[in-house]
Structures are given as structure tokens and as C-alpha cells.
Amino acid sequence: MIDNIQHYFERTDNTEQYNLRGKLNKAGAPILIATSDKVLPAFTDYESAFFEGLKISYIRPLAVTDYSMFVGNETDMARLENLMSYLPKTPRSVQIAAKIIEDSASLETDIMLLIDYFSFYYQVKYEGYVVQIQRILSAIARVEDGVSLQEICQMTGQDNGKIFPYFKLKADRKIIDKTSKIQRGGIYNIADPLFRLWLQTNVYCSQHNIVTLVGTL
């Protein structure tokens, strides 16, 4: 069983993939069960090694009406829906959100506990980026409705030529979303709403407090 198998297919060529398929087709070979966040050409293209080699099952996100199947009747559904607006629509997310509500006294506390629950994950994710990308993400997170590339350049003090390669890399990998189009360019935001909230709480506020402290001194 393999999670996020797209990472393997995106980093290997067709020759290596044919080699893997040959091993999986041998008698006594294990059965491969895997997840991917997208359907790659490696699964569907006629010339790819795994064309018709995998049975693809599509798992739809949970709808709001599905949440009650995974929580007790005592759960506040309005608070649950609010937390789920930041999470992937999966049964595990519903269970996490329900436990947070159980341990929380208010809607505001719900959000803080949610951020705290995933804080270590996002801290590692953020620190894994180069400084230039950290600056871009922090700048985008400051504005709730998203920003243009020109505004990001102004916020970070970097010109378009220096910032665009990093920016495009994260946009291509869906870390950054283009949320609307204008005549030139677009409006961009952090794709993961909880990551955006974590950045606002843990990065931008920390940087703002440092600047304020230095100014006071």
C-alpha cells in the first residue's frame, strides 16, 4: 500500500515504470494499492507503461450531509462545518474536527485548536522552502482576498524577474492558486486554506511583532 504514488511516477521514466510493471505481473508478486491526488498521464496515456495496468477508483469528497455518519448526535454541526471549511473532505478530517469541538469551549477556540493540531506539520513544510519562497507565501497570506504578482513584488521588495521563477514553481505545484483572472496576470492566494491561516497566525504575526519591537527599541 502506497500513499501519494504520483511522486514516484513524476520522478521516473517509462523504462523504469515498465520494469516495475513487469515485476508486478510475475506470479506471486504483491498487489499494488496506492493513492494519488490526481490522475496522471502515466495512468491513462496509451503509450505509458501502466496504461490499463491500474484499476482507478475515484473517491469523491464528503458532502456536508455526509458528516453526520462519522460523528455523534451531540456534535455542533455548525461548528463542524466551519472547521471542515479548512480541511480535506474526508472521514478522518470529520473525526479530527469533532474531537476539537469536544475539547473546545467556543468557535474561536475551535480555530486555535485546529491550527495547533496541524502546527508541527505546517512548520516543517514552511521551513523546507527556501527563504525566497517563504517570503512569497508570507506576503500572499497577509491579504485575505489574494494579491497580484505586482503586489507581491512590492511586499517582498523583489523585482518580477527574481521572484517569478519561485512563484511559478509553487503555482505549478498547486501550493499557490490563481483565484481569478484580470487583463494581465491574476489574483493569487494560498491553495490550502488552513496553511494560509497558519501563515497568518504563526509567520506574519511573528514578523509584525518583531518589526514593532525593533521600532519601539
Please identify the structural class as seen in this structure: mainly alpha
Mean pLDDT across every amino acid position: 84
Shape assignment? flat
Going across the biggest sheet, name each strand in turn. Answer: 1-2
What percent of residues adopt helix (DSSP H or I)?
40-55%
Order of helices and strands: HHHHHHHHHEEH
Main sheet overview: 2 strands, antiparallel
Number of strands: 2
Termini Cα gap: 56 Å
> Which ranges are low-confidence, i.e. pLDDT below 50, for 5 or more consecutive residues?
208-217
Proportion of beta-strand residues: 5-15%
Helices, by number, come to 10
CA gyration radius, whole angstroms: 21 Å
List keywords for this structure.
217 residues; mainly alpha; two-stranded antiparallel sheet; 2 strands; flat
Brief summary:
By secondary structure, the protein is mainly alpha-helical.
Account of the 3D structure:
It is a single chain. This protein is mainly alpha-helical and 217 residues long. It is 54% helix and 5% strand. It is built from ten helices and two strands, in the order αααααααααββα. It has a two-stranded antiparallel sheet with strand order 1-2. The longest helix is centred in the C-terminal third of the chain and has 24 residues, at 193-216. It is flat. The N and C termini lie far apart (56 Å).
